Amino acid sequence: MASQSPLRMMRLNEVLDLTGLSRATLYRKIAAETFPPQHKLAERCCGWRAGEVAVWLRNPVTFTIADLEPEPA
Fold it and tell me: pLDDT by residue (tens digit) across 54-70?
């Protein structure tokens, strides 16, 4: 499988398939800051950065938002 950019945006269904989480569990984890937050792509469209989801996949049990690198200013 070819490597993909960590900045690539993933939509909800792709994130759910990759993580095995249900939609409710995903949003509960986002609220608890134990899953990377979604980024607004358009007025009614959000996505997740592939690199941030990959960080979560490496250690989903102890992940916190602090594990993500800060965004450049």
Answer: 999 999 999 998 888 77
What residues contact 46, with CB distance under 8 A and at least 6 apart? 12, 38, 39, 40
pTM across the whole model: 0.85
> What is the 3-state secondary structure of the chain?
CCCCCCCCEECHHHHHHHHCCCHHHHHHHHHCCCCCCCEEEECCEEEEEHHHHHHHHHCCCCCCHHHCCCCCC
Contacts of 63 (CB under 8 A, 6+ apart): 34, 35, 55, 56
User: Residue 56: phi, psi to the nearest 5?
Assistant: -60, -40
Predicted pLDDT of residue 7: 86
Using an 8 Å Cβ cutoff, are 26 and 56 in contact? Answer: no
